[in-house]
C-alpha cells in the first residue's frame, strides 16, 4: 500500500479526463514544509502562523518572523505560499497575552478581531510577511472575516505596513494578493460583496461547519452533530464558489474536508480545483483524483444537492467510492 502511494507522487495531478487539480499543503512550521514537499505538493495553501507565537513568553519580533516566512518562500521556489495572519483565540491561547475569560470563546475575541484591535502586533506580522514577499510567491490570508469593515480595517493596517517599508527602503511585492477565509456563515451570505474586496477566498470548512451547525468543534459531547456532509454546509459551499466565480476571483478550500479523499468528486462537481490539506492526506486525495472524472463529479453534485438528509448524503459519498474502488 505504502509503495502504491509512493508511486502516485510523480503522476500528474489530474482526473482521468484531464482536469488539473492543485494539491497544496497546510503547514504550521518549516519542518512541516519539508514533509509536504516530499509529498509533491504544488505549494502551501495555508501557513497557520500560530505556532510561531506559541510555546514562548514574548511576541516574536518582526525579523524573527521574517526569517521563517522568507525561508518558506525560498524553499517553495515560486510556488504559492499563502500565509494566514495570526488566528488565536477560541481554542488557541497564548501565555503572554491575557485574553479575557469568556463564556463562549468560539464566539469571542479571536482571529482578525484581535488583529484589528492590536494593530501594533498585526502591523509587525504584516511587515514580516511583506518583506518575505520579495523572495517568492507570497499571499496574505485574513482569518475569521465576518464583514466588509473587517477587510477594510485589515487593509488599512496593511497599507501602513507598506508605507513604513517604503520609507525604510525595504522591498516587497506591491501587488501582493490578499485573500480571506470563508469560515463564518455571514461571510458566505455576503460572499458576493467580499469578492469585490479581495483576490481570493479560502474556505475553512472546520470553522464553517462549526458555525453553520452551531456545534462547537471541540465539544466531544456533541461531536456526532459535527457533520460536514450536511445539506446546509453544501449549500454554503456552493454559494461561496458561485460568488467567487461570478466575481472572477479564485477559491480554494483549506479545512479538513479538503483532505477527505471521499469529498474529492464533490469538489470537482463544485468546480473547486485548489485544495489545501495536511501532508498525510495528499497521497490519498491524489489517488482518488486520478481515479475520478469531472463528469462523475458533476453527477455526484447533482445528487448531493437533491439530498434532504446527512444520511442520504453520506451514503451517496460512500456509494461513489464503492463504484470506483
Ligand atoms: C478552518 O477553520 O477550516 C481552518 C482551516 O482553520 P483552522 O482549522 O485553523 O481554524
Ligand atoms: Mg478556522
From TrEMBL:
EC code(s) of this entry: 2.7.3.9
Residue numbers binding phosphoenolpyruvate: 48, 84, 206-207, 217
Predominant localisation class: cytoplasm
Swiss-Prot/TrEMBL catalytic activity: L-histidyl-[protein] + phosphoenolpyruvate = N(pros)-phospho-L-histidyl-[protein] + pyruvate
Record carries keyword Nucleotide-binding: no
Keywords: Cytoplasm, Kinase, Magnesium, Metal-binding, Phosphotransferase system, Sugar transport, Transferase, Transport
Domain PEP-utilising enzyme C-terminal: 3-289
Gene Ontology molecular function: kinase activity; metal ion binding; phosphoenolpyruvate-protein phosphotransferase activity
GO cellular-component term (any): cytoplasm
Annotated localization: Cytoplasm
Family: Belongs to the PEP-utilizing enzyme family.
Function per UniProt: General (non sugar-specific) component of the phosphoenolpyruvate-dependent sugar phosphotransferase system (sugar PTS). This major carbohydrate active-transport system catalyzes the phosphorylation of incoming sugar substrates concomitantly with their translocation across the cell membrane. Enzyme I transfers the phosphoryl group from phosphoenolpyruvate (PEP) to the phosphoryl carrier protein (HPr).
Protein name per the record: Phosphoenolpyruvate-protein phosphotransferase
Species of origin: Paenibacillus oceani
Upper classification of the organism: Bacteria, Bacillati, Bacillota, Bacilli, Bacillales
